Amino acid sequence: MIYYQQTRTSRNFVNKSNHTERSNLQTIRLPILLSTAIVVIILCSSMFSWYQESLDNQTHEFSLQYNQGMADLSAAYLGHLIEDENTDAIESIGLRLNNNENIQKLAIYRRNGELIYSAGDAAKPHSAPVIANISYEDNYNGYLVIYFIPATDLVQSEPPFWLKPFMIWGIGATLWLLLFFLLTFIRRKKEPTQTTPDQTSVVPPQTAKKNEVVLKELIKRNRKQLQNKTIQHSLVIKAEWSKLDAESNALLLRVLSRWLPQNGLLATQFSDGLLVLGLDPTSTPLNRNPLHALERCLQQLQLQPKILLHHLNFDREIYHMFFDIIEPGVWFEKKLRQKDDNYDWPSTKLIDIELDTHDIIELCQLEEPDAEQRGLIERQVRFLSED
């Protein structure tokens, strides 16, 4: 009888202790959940604000480099024209610049401030003017003033999927729910053999590599210009993009931002290690020297580029087959010679590639430049790569 009373007393004590422990957990659970919810909200807001600020800075820097590069390039063409008093050619270049969708207004002046050419509408919103000096044989003879559209219109960028607002708040809500279920689980009576289930940590998706971000920014920048345009020829580049670091990424952005508008090309795709550039049909045909200059710039970045200019469109697997066969350098489709006399370029190698459809594709390797061309190319390389 005594043993029974002691056992009953012991059980009552244990039950009372468990009840007290559960009461304490229930009491502290609400403040924990509330404080955690506040912390999650602050973290999510900070993450979103940080990304917006980073995106704004990146957009601003990109637009500055692109605008200044385009202005410097345009000014380089005007030096000898002003020196020769060739107003017709100056007006022709000014008209072509004014037709650019990103330019709001432009003006060309002599060094004494005399206006030579002006076009555009200054009444619409525009960014701060970009000024480029015009010189000929190291003699200053004028300046070019260009007003571009606002940077927010110039660069349109979407955040990665996991940095979109609904994903940020979704991740925050998920973390809070995990804490809620964890506290609820702790309240349950634990059996000796019961183990807490393993918690798998959710690894957020990795952000795109810096080199892909740079190249895709160019594509987003050109997306607006691609509307209602049919690409005439394509320039496909395969390179060792993984070798890019922060410094070489900035140099690559500078080179492409100056080289693309200079030669009338638009970045259309970057996927599976292939960068595809499209030639605007309204632009003049490509020349050999700019292609050699682009190749030299990519070689300086240790990217081992393989560049292919062609007229037909192929599947990505066929492109990779081409690049596995050809060696580094500039190549073009032989059929371009038949379609356009402007591409009747000298070549050193000719490779015949048979497709599964039994079609024969003939690829020619562009001949190396001569001594006179190399001097012009080196000047172009310095202009493209130097600050």
What layout of secondary structure does this protein have?
Layout: H1 2-83, H2 87-98, E1 103-110, E2 115-120, E3 130-136, E4 139-148, H3 151-154, H4 165-187, H5 210-223, E5 234-238, H6 246-263, E6 265-271, E7 274-279, H7 288-300, E8 306-310, H8 316-325, E9 329-333, H9 335-339, E10 347-354, E11 360-366, H10 371-385
Parallel strand pairs: 8-9
Antiparallel strand pairs: 1-2, 1-4, 3-4, 5-7, 5-8, 6-7, 9-11, 10-11
Helix pairs in contact: 1-2, 1-4, 1-6, 5-6, 6-7, 7-10
Transmembrane segments: 32-51, 166-186
Keywords: Membrane, Transmembrane, Transmembrane helix
Give an account of the 3D structure:
Helix 1 (2-83) packs antiparallel against helix 2, helix 1 (2-83) packs across helix 6 and helix 7 (288-300) crosses helix 10. The chain is globular. The chain has 387 residues and is an alpha+beta fold. Strands 6-7-5-8-9-11-10 form a 7-stranded mixed sheet, with helices on both faces. A 4-stranded antiparallel sheet has the order 2-1-4-3, with helices on one face. It contains 10 helices and 11 strands. The protein has helices at 2-83, 87-98, 151-154, 165-187, 210-223, 246-263, 288-300, 316-325, 335-339, 371-385; strands spanning 103-110, 115-120, 130-136, 139-148, 234-238, 265-271, 274-279, 306-310, 329-333, 347-354, 360-366. Keywords: Membrane, Transmembrane, Transmembrane helix. The chain crosses the membrane at residues 32-51, 166-186.
